[in-house]
Fold this sequence. Notes:
The chain is of the alpha/beta class. It is 38% helix and 14% strand. It contains eight helices and ten strands. The strands form three sheets. Strands 1, 2, 3, 8, 9 and 10 form a six-stranded parallel beta sheet that branches. It has a two-stranded parallel sheet with strand order 4-7. The chain has a two-stranded antiparallel sheet with strand order 5-6. Helix 6 links the parallel strand 8 and strand 9 (191-196). Helix 1 runs parallel beside helix 7 (208-220). The longest helix is centred in the middle third of the chain and has 18 residues, at 92-109. The two termini are 15 Å apart. It binds zinc ion (ZN). Zinc ion (ZN) is lined by residues 17-18, 68, 72, 121. The site of zinc ion has 5 residues, from loops.
Amino acid sequence: MPPWPDGCAGAVTLTFDDAITCHLTRAAPILNEFGLRGTFYVNPTPAWMERAADWRAVHAAGHEIGNHTPGHPCSNNFGWMHQRRGLEDLTLAEIEEEIRRGREALEAALPQQKDHSFCYPCYQDFVGRGPTRQSYVPVVAKYHAAARGRGETFNRPAHVDLHYVWSFPCERMSGAELIGLCEQAAEGGGWAVLTFHGVGEAHLMVGESDFRALCAHLARHAERLWTAPLLEVAQRVRSWRNDLG
Length: 245
Ligand SMILES: [Zn+2]
């Protein structure tokens, strides 16, 4: 028996990165309209903290607000990272400080939220380069019960690393493609995690009508497809594994 509730065949998590304005104005309202709950990974900078009331309202509607770090450190191989110290130059202690600051800022801004998951900026989970390169997944695991990266397929509940859950980057996908990812996971008894950035506008965009088509499908088939925030699904997978011994 898969771990999903109420006889559901598969699980789906919709995630939204970078605290883009369209998440407040489009994505969250559309999810609410269809009775779906997702995970919004935000960068809790001072500018973000000024809008914390808007994000508290998103959390109050049932969504998870997760840690995407204040500084969003990525590889120096990105052009926009050239003026900054990238992951190649950071130490594990420095990335730990970044993760801890993000976690504490979210706890301060959203005291009602009991816990939240982590999301790797640019999906990257390393510091250093070549002989000194190492994973920072174990550092994330010190602070968070679950974390989202990027992967090749849906997640198998018996095997997924809950501190690097695989997700599908969904920019430019059609509604049919988005629905297909969820249905494939359900056929395999698995968990599809979808990553969105812009919805209807902004970078790495998915069309609003395509996003709506996905949400309508998930709402219509809620008895087969369990849609829930990332931390909630990860916790269910963990307790299912514990029960299996
Ligand atoms: Zn990001």
